[in-house]
Specification:
The complex is a heterotrimer of chains A (169), B (365) and C (616). Helix content of chain A is 24%, strand content 24%. Chain A contains 4 helices and 7 strands; from the N terminus they run H-E-E-H-E-E-E-E-H-E-H. The relative contact order of chain A is 0.14. Chain B is an alpha+beta fold. Chain B has a single domain, classed as Cytochrome-c3 Hydrogenase, chain B (Orthogonal Bundle). In chain B, the strands form 3 sheets. Chain B has a 3-stranded antiparallel β-sheet with strand order 1-2-3. A 3-stranded antiparallel β-sheet of chain B has the order 6-7-8. Chain C has 616 residues and is α/β, with parallel strands linked by helices. Classes of the chains: A alpha/beta (169), B alpha+beta (365), C alpha/beta (616). Chains in contact: A-B, B-C. The interface between B and C is large, with 39 and 46 residues.
């Protein structure tokens, strides 16, 4: 890997895997323990803008993939041509033990993102200040954005349980 | 003084949209604010995983009623990037013009909501009327007034109708002719500036730390605009300016909105002049069995409220594997709003929220 | 900001004296834009009932409803879309996918009703319907509804440039006319894998073709398999209904393509070429198909004729476990397909590929064996539990004009060229006939002239009773024949073959045709006797049609065989003739006279034979 950032990451952290980028981004796969240190490292390196934390359910592989999209604020026109590559950080989390360290200590905006992922995928973020529900109203055995969540089954389970109105009173 | 918990919205006169904020107040002062989205969680992202690539296209615009067009654009951009579809040059110009029209329409809508909430009914009615004129243009171009379903993967759905550019120019001129009226009644009106200056100040550091985009950071003097930083469509083909203000307060934010609207109109005129002839659509593969190669893409564009992103994952099938929208209101409405409200007056809650241009459906997705 | 800033705002009070901007709706109605996406319109005359609109609808708002008053014909189902306006989001995807462009959106958008059932609506343009589509003067916004709409109020309509389907097919690579007429090399080169996948992608999967195919092949499925790059799966789907894909992939009459929804505003999907691609891309059918004959039943079936029908009957019955013996007078399989279609259209290797596979299932082929000469028909009936006649039309007809005995006959000519030594041809040839066989004859004659008289001036002329528009050959075939430089003389009928002093042919005297068919559409040509012309030619070949040859059936039995009014062998729904245990199909039974209909007949007959033998 000729990318200087890649080289530095590789030299600094154990178990970092660099992949060919997604449309010009540098894709970095790290073990989940390394999420916070790598994010801190990147932030200090100028990646001050966490665009998104996303989660993908790869049910066939039995794991969730956390995706951190990192960019930087710039006033330069056509900033990407300036040579700085955006970074896509990935870490996998087994579906069985769905938990990951929180990134709220590094990026404040991680708070609602992680809260959402916790709610929709059931991933626990260790050290997150408030993993309270964000969007949803009721608890259900399977969080709704998991691939094994069956919408129809959910409706049957939740709404058919409403007791039928008894005419007698 | 006694602490009270106060529910602001969703049924509240000062609240625009299905959104609520739980406030902890002491007297008139807010000690703590908790944003509660979820009143219209429609699960679009989940829904899209179960629909084919083309069936998602009429649906994405519905994520955001105020600015549906950028939703169409971002989805088209994502699909084009994943599937490797080229867009004809003319279509890029048509898209830019269309998106700038959308920005004008969306800003006018936002101005309506903001002015209306502050009690400037005259201005809000003007804004609504002028937005309607823009919607007439959309109707002529796309056949729909609010949900246009126009930008689709491969280009746009139809070319400009005969004489459309002339009518567009004349409509925009007539709206532009009212800018002095807007200025005297609203932007330069002491009644308004007193109400908005120094309210809801977000410093640049705070904004950047919490993922602020759009007017929120442009009001702190930062020239950050995706159209410049990461140009798409035809934004790098014509000259135009990014407008900023320095104070970071509600007044600065709404003035950025004003300047942007005017800039958009100028940009449309430039785009019309520079627009090439040619096709506006590269046919996509048969949509009934369209498969997109496995892969992932993150695309972004500058919606009327700031950076809008889309993280799209395909597993090589006929449907997306994961769709995740990064909407500007997400950062503004959840993180920044909660922070900014602390210490503000109850009467300024709506003022601050609307000046940040928070659109609830965007948060709930 | 000064105090004036606040007072300044009062200046907008001037607007109080302007004209109001608000329109007084509905008394001053607002005209929707020309592209407005309102309620649907559907032209029932062009709607094919293909159901692609229902397929693409993101909200399942469209359901295809069977319309009793309409008749289903090939390429046109009797179904029409029904909209549920409780679900419709007016996106217009249905308009952009509609192959005939019949479904459009109108500029009407009012409908208020207390009955929710009225929101479920089957759109239909009925220009004459004064009740539903009212003229401008009787239209009123206050009464507007789904059944009170403005006439000629079309909005968002289909535009081929923006359609969601691809109207043009992937061009089939072919050898150009100037080159191909010099030899018998196969004219059509065949799709590459990329081309085939690309062409298969055009198919919308509506299945109109499947209804039109006489054999009801699972066309959508096998095309989908090609699209998914699974030719093996595709071949398995094809073999469910058609055991001769290499043959049919080259010369099927493709009723399916005539029914393809895309034909209406573009070119149909190249279904035939895709079938050919599948059969060509798989070298060894046996390992892919993994078929085995069924459990032995102890029943024996004799098949007369190894043409498409005979081959198919043998294949289907063998899979059921019966023993099958096929008799044919030729030295290989294919029947008339073996001798008729020239090599440039159907090489023998392709025929043998299909026949060899059927033989590999354990079907016993007895070639060079003519029923009625080498074995007797009666003998067959005694030896076998059932007999299938797939003998086809093997006797060329003659015009019967003066000296016509000096002319060559089409089938003899074709057979010799393909399976024996090529005929010696002269430099000027006249071919009589306007059908596909006549085209084959002329184009073969042209090639032989090029080979036997290289560098010399040669002429091939065609003369047909029918004019351009009524010529029975396919337009494709006529076009290719013209491209090769063959001269056409349509609407001329032969009167007499002219001979020179030595008794050799020197030309054909023709007379102008007045009409070919009578008022009832029957073949009854009339001529203008006074308008004559002479077509010069030292060789004349008659290719005006073929008839069946039943000489192998003993006279006593032949008398018991029943025929239809069209002079076709009459069979029941199981394919059985009036002779018990004797089944028939193909050209002697149907009027389509093509391979795929013979396969369809064979499928019916094989099931009939199976039932009949079980019941015995």
């Amino acid at each position: 890997m000729t990318n200087p950032l890649g080289t530095r990451l590789d030299a600094t952290f154990k178990g970092v895997e660099l992949r060919s980028g997604v449309d010009g981004r540098l894709a970095v796969v790290v073990p989940r323990e390394a999420i916070v240190p790598v994010l801190t490292f990147l932030k200090e390196d100028g990646y001050d803008y966490l665009q998104l934390i996303s989660c993908v359910d790869w049910i066939d592989r039995g794991e969730f993939e956390l995706v951190y999209l990192l960019s930087f604020y710039t006033e330069d026109e056509v900033g990407r041509d300036g040579g700085k590559q955006e970074v896509l950080l990935k870490a996998t989390v087994p579906r069985e033990q769905a938990s990951a360290p929180t990134a709220t200590g590094v990026f404040a905006i991680a708070e609602p993102h992680e809260r959402e992922i916790h709610e929709l995928y059931g991933i626990h973020f260790e050290g997150h200040p408030r993993l309270t529900p964000l969007f949803l109203d009721r608890d259900y055995e399977i969080p709704p954005f998991r691939k094994d969540f069956d919408t129809k089954q959910y409706v049957a389970d939740v709404f058919d349980r409403v007791p039928p109105i008894d005419e007698e009173g | 003084m006694r602490e009270l918990e106060l529910y602001f919205g969703p049924q509240h006169l000062g609240m625009v949209g299905n959104f609520s904020i739980t406030l902890k107040v002491e007297g008139d002062r807010i000690l703590e604010a908790t944003a509660n989205p979820g009143y219209l969680h429609r699960g679009f992202e989940k829904l899209m995983e179960g629909r084919s690539w083309i069936k998602n296209f009429p649906m994405v615009c519905r994520i955001n009623l105020v600015d549906p067009d950028h939703m169409e654009m971002i989805y088209a951009m994502g699909v084009e990037k994943l599937a490797g579809i080229e867009v004809p040059e003319r279509a890029q110009f048509v898209r830019s013009i269309y998106l700038e029209l959308a920005r004008v329409s969306s800003h006018l809508f936002g101005l309506w909501a903001y002015a209306n909430m502050l009690g400037f009914d005259t201005v809000s009615n003007w804004a609504m009327y002028h937005r309607d004129l823009v919607l007439d243009l959309f109707e002529e171009l796309t056949g729909g007034r609010v949900y246009h379903i126009y930008v689709w993967p491969g280009g746009v759905r139809r070319d400009f109708p005969e004489g459309f550019t002339d009518r567009m120019v004349s409509t925009l001129h007539s709206i532009g002719g009212c800018v002095p009226d807007y200025d005297t009644t609203f932007f330069n009106n002491k009644l308004f500036s007193e109400r908005a200056r120094g309210v809801g100040v977000v410093s640049r550091e705070e904004a950047l730390a919490m993922g602020g985009v759009g007017q929120v950071i442009r009001a702190t003097g930062m020239k950050y605009d995706v159209r410049k930083v990461d140009p798409y469509a035809a934004y790098d083909r014509v000259p135009w300016e990014v407008h900023t203000r320095d104070d970071g307060d509600a007044y600065s934010r709404i003035c950025v909105v004003r300047d942007e609207m005017i800039e958009s109109v100028h940009m449309i005129f430039n785009l019309i002049d520079a627009m090439p002839e040619g096709d506006v659509y590269n046919r996509v593969p048969n949509p009934l069995k369209w498969k997109i190669p496995a892969g992932e893409a993150y695309v972004r564009c500058e919606s009327s409220r700031g950076e809008l992103g889309l993280y799209l994952v395909s597993d090589g099938g006929e449907k997306p594997h994961r769709v995740h929208f990064r909407t500007p209101s997400y950062a503004h409405g959840l993180a920044i709003l909660e922070k900014t409200l602390v210490g503000a007056n109850i009467a300024d809650v709506g003022n601050i929220m609307m000046s940040m241009y928070v659109v609830a459906p965007e948060i709930d997705r | 900001m000064s105090k004036r800033g606040f007072l300044n705002s009062l200046s907008v009070g001037k607007h109080l004296f302007g004209k109001p901007k608000t329109t007084c709706y509905p008394f001053t109605p607002k005209e929707p834009a020309l592209r407005y996406r309102g309620f649907h319109l559907n032209d029932w005359d062009t709607c094919t009932g293909c159901g692609n609109c229902a397929e693409i609808c993101p909200n399942d708002a469209i359901e295809m409803i069977e319309i009793a008053e309409l008749e289903s014909v090939p390429g046109m189902k009797n179904e029409r879309p029904r909209l549920d306006y409780g679900r419709c989001c007016f996106c217009g995807l249905c308009v952009d996918i509609c192959p005939p462009g019949s479904l459009r959106l109108s500029r009407d958008y009012f409908h208020t009703h207390f009955d929710t059932d009225t929101f479920v609506f089957t759109p239909r343009d009925d220009k004459a319907d004064q009740e539903k589509f009212v003229p401008d003067e009787s239209y009123s916004v206050l009464k507007a509804s789904l059944s009170h709409r403005k006439r000629n109020y079309e909005g968002f309509s289909s535009d081929l440039d923006y359609a969601l389907f691809e109207p043009e097919r992937v061009p089939m690579p072919e050898i150009p006319p100037t080159e191909r007429k010099l030899s018998f090399v196969e004219q059509v080169i065949g799709y590459s894998k990329e081309e085939a996948v690309h062409e298969a992608a055009r198919c919308l999967g509506c299945g109109l073709c499947e209804d039109a195919c006489p054999a009801h092949m699972k066309i959508s499925d096998y095309i989908l398999a090609v699209y998914n790059d699974e030719p093996e799966e595709s071949l398995r789907k094809i073999y469910e209904d058609n055991p001769i894909p290499a043959i049919c992939g080259r010369l099927c009459m493709k009723h399916c393509e005539d029914a393809c929804a895309l034909r209406l505003r573009g070119e149909p999907v190249a279904i035939r070429w895709l079938k050919r691609f599948v059969s060509d891309s798989i070298r060894d059918y046996k390992t892919v198909l993994e078929q085995a004959p069924g459990q032995p039943t102890g029943k024996k079936v004799g098949v007369v004729g190894a043409g498409p029908g005979g081959l198919s009957v043998a294949y289907f019955l063998r899979l059921m476990g019966h023993e099958v013996v096929v008799f044919d007078e030729l030295e290989g399989g294919g029947g008339m397909i073996r001798v008729g279609p020239p090599r440039y259209r159907l090489p023998l290797a392709s025929i043998d590929k299909d026949v060899d596979y059927i033989a590999s299932l354990g079907v016993d082929f007895r070639f060079n064996t003519r029923v009625g000469k080498d074995v007797s028909f009666e003998g067959l009936r005694q030896e076998f539990d059932a007999v299938y006649l797939g003998v086809g039309l093997t006797k060329s007809r003659s015009t019967g004009v003066d000296n016509s005995e000096k002319c060559g006959l089409a089938l003899d000519f074709l057979r010799k060229n393909k399976t024996d030594r090529p005929t010696a041809v002269t430099k000027e040839i006249v071919v009589i006939g306007g059908g596909n066989v006549a085209m084959d004859v002329a184009r073969e004659a042209l090639r032989l002239q090029q080979i036997q008289h290289p560098g010399e001036k040669t002429v091939t002329r065609m003369v047909s009773l029918e004019d351009w528009d009524e010529m029975p050959a396919t337009s494709e075939e006529i076009e290719e024949t013209r491209e090769e430089g063959i001269e056409f003389n349509p609407a001329w009928g032969p009167k007499k073959v002219l001979l020179d002093d030595g008794g050799n042919v020197k030309g054909l005297l023709c007379m102008k045709v007045k009409s070919v068919f009578d008022d009832e559409g029957r073949f009854a040509p009339t001529f203008r006797e006074d308008e004559e012309m002479v077509l010069e030619g030292t060789m004349i070949i008659e290719a005006i049609g073929q008839g069946p040859d039943f000489s192998f059936v003993p006279e006593g039995e032949f008398e018991k065989m029943e025929f239809t009014a069209m002079r076709k062998v009459s069979v029941d729904e199981d394919g059985m003739t009036s002779l018990p245990g004797v089944f028939a199909g193909g050209d002697i039974v149907n009027i389509n006279l093509d391979a795929v209909t013979a396969i369809a007949d064979a499928k019916i007959a094989s099931e009939g034979i199976h039932r009949w033998m079980q019941s015995k």
